[in-house]
Amino acid sequence: MVADIDLEKFFDSVNHDVLMEKLATKIVDGRVLCLVRLYLEAGLMADGL
After folding, report:
1. What domain range is 37 assigned to?
2. Which pLDDT tens digit goes with each residue over 27-42?
């Protein structure tokens, strides 16, 4: 089964703190959690801006 969805705005509506708490129950490597947090907080680059 393949699903085609647009995630562009999905993570804008997700509570990042709650998501990080849920991930921390499964991911024990703090470096990975840090990378996920940075990804969630990163802006979007479009046309080099």
Report:
1. 10-41
2. 999 999 999 999 888 8
